[in-house]
Amino acid sequence: MVQRLLEPGEIEALDHTAIPRLLLPQPGSLYTARAERLRQLAANNIKGIPVDEALASYVKLMAELVQAQADVVKTLLPAGIPLPPDDEMKVAHEHNMPVLPATGKRPAEWRAVFAAILDKLDAQAADQPQLTNALVALRALTDAQLEGAADAVLGDFAEGIDPLHAPFVAAALQVTWSVMAAQLDERWAQPLMTGTLCPVCGSHPVASVIRIGGQSQGYRYLHCAVCASEWHMVRVKCSCCESNAKIAYQGLTPADADPVAENVAAAKEGKTLNKANDPTRVARAETCDECHTYRKIFNQEHDYNVDPLADDLASLVLDVLVSELGYARASGNPLLRLGSPA
């Protein structure tokens, strides 16, 4: 019997019950696991994602911020945050629009979430003057200024927010939207006209991830930067322009690595190299020569504990190398405010 490889279009046409199209977030465990991942990254304990000393201190600070997110989520669950009225979600559903649009009217609860996150960070600020100063400045924002900062974060505007304040505002928005998304019946979320935006809130993905286990085994998902929902996109397809013609993968290889010698040594012992848990395949950049952008892809097959947002933040060395090749980043990371994306 001859087996035939399916083309991308055929994969997308498969029974929707065979491939989970949407994975809603589980904020009760998401932020706790992310905070621990960030601590591991800051300690340079993750093979395949080297973190230098200068970046490590920032990653460690973001671990504290994410831990604050985890602590606040515990106070929100199981009551959650009210969802929009059913009639509004029905209209969105019928017109293939996001049912919890991040650029729409924000629930008033998000400001309370913001204040609670700052309160949780007070203990960590005791011996960190810079964090203390940031918390003072953030608490001094008026409601109008805070809403403007949220507009800048969600709209990815270059103006309207201090880059140092952006991660803290983004953290509150992430908690708010992920808690709402977790309450959602996934049947409300229809595929959008473009597969590059989150079907739940309409935001850009921060990165993509290859998942393992259950029906998601081996499939690639885009991870939303705001609500943390994940939606399926076939592999070897640009998550920015949706082209699949000129895709390539750029990764990091240790300077002292010699794959040829490793293969020769394994062959002499009558063995083949184990491709699982390969550090060079944990984090790679998926580049597209059609739109000249890239977005990182993290592989759970090679590191079970990958976190798309945390690993993206810590792998800045990969951003530098890929940008030097002439590719522009497709979208930003909410925990790090750099220049405008492509």
TrEMBL record:
<dbReference type="InterPro" id="IPR006452">
    <property type="entry name" value="Formate_DH_accessory"/>
</dbReference>
<feature type="domain" description="FdhE C-terminal">
    <location>
        <begin position="236"/>
        <end position="336"/>
    </location>
</feature>
<dbReference type="Pfam" id="PF24859">
    <property type="entry name" value="FdhE_central"/>
</dbReference>
<dbReference type="GO" id="GO:0051604">
    <property type="term" value="P:protein maturation"/>
</dbReference>
<dbReference type="GO" id="GO:0005829">
    <property type="term" value="C:cytosol"/>
</dbReference>
<dbReference type="InterPro" id="IPR024064">
    <property type="entry name" value="FdhE-like_sf"/>
</dbReference>
<keyword id="KW-0963">Cytoplasm</keyword>
<dbReference type="GO" id="GO:0008199">
    <property type="term" value="F:ferric iron binding"/>
</dbReference>
<dbReference type="InterPro" id="IPR056774">
    <property type="entry name" value="FdhE_N"/>
</dbReference>
<dbReference type="InterPro" id="IPR056797">
    <property type="entry name" value="FdhE_central"/>
</dbReference>
<dbReference type="Pfam" id="PF24860">
    <property type="entry name" value="FdhE_C"/>
</dbReference>
<dbReference type="InterPro" id="IPR056796">
    <property type="entry name" value="FdhE_C"/>
</dbReference>
<dbReference type="Pfam" id="PF04216">
    <property type="entry name" value="FdhE_N"/>
</dbReference>
<protein>
    <submittedName>
        <fullName>FdhE protein</fullName>
    </submittedName>
</protein>
<feature type="domain" description="FdhE N-terminal">
    <location>
        <begin position="19"/>
        <end position="192"/>
    </location>
</feature>
<feature type="domain" description="FdhE central">
    <location>
        <begin position="197"/>
        <end position="235"/>
    </location>
</feature>
